[in-house]
Amino acid sequence: MTLAKEIPTSLNGNLPNFSTEAAPVVSEEEMRQAVRTLLLGLGENPDREGLKDTPKRVVKALKFLTSGYHQSLDELLNGAVFHENTDEMVLVRDIDIFSSCEHHILPILGRAHVAYIPDGKVIGLSKVARICEMYGRRLQVQERLTAQIADALQGLLKPKGVAVVVEASHMCMVMRGVQKVGSWTSTSAVRGVFSEDAKTRQEFMSLIRHTPNFS
């Protein structure tokens, strides 16, 4: 097994900007063999009909669920940053979050609410959801995920402020451990005016608690 070059540390790098270690290069066959070993360790027969293709399926699923490691903000945005003379809050709420806990590799399921106050530049609305998706599709802790979304928008747009709230249920708490079904974790990250001005921050919190009526 060889070692890759040092993990990029910039905001636009493919991998998280908090790591300075070298990433091992592992073949797909090695990954499948690792899953097979796990099955053996669990007392299963990896050669029986129902499990014969499980290593292949697990590797494919894990690669999809962590595909955010192989995306960059530049590729994701594809030029969808526009000059606009507005300084009113832009809010995209109830963005589905599907991530994986880095401690147990179990699902984190929830939603994100993301707001920013432009300072001459806006971003395509779908790209806000794409940013959440990119960072979600990595092994995560919720606190880091929330901060990464906020810092990405702050770095891309240089807005007057950014606010992010993530609400999620962690299967490592629901399915194992304390087994508290129905428990939710809420995290927030505020930058700029949202951090400095309580009134602006309260407006954001009020908007994400309000249920829209489109009838």
Q: Examine the secondary-structure arrangement and name the CATH architecture of the largest domain.
A: 2-Layer Sandwich
Q: What structural category characterises the helix and strand content?
A: alpha+beta
CATH class of the largest domain: Alpha Beta
The major β-sheet equals: 5 strands, mixed
Order of helices and strands: EEHHHEEEEHEHEHEHH
Detail the poorly predicted runs.
1-20
User: Looking at CATH, which topology of the largest domain would you report?
Assistant: GTP Cyclohydrolase I, domain 2
Question: How much helix, percentage-wise, in residues?
Answer: 25-40%
Shape: elongated
Strand content: 25-35%
Number of strands: 9
Biggest sheet: strand arrangement: 7-4-5-8-9
Helix count equals 8
The residue-averaged pLDDT reads: 88
- Whole-angstrom Rg: 20 Å
Task: Please indicate the count of domains.
Answer: 2
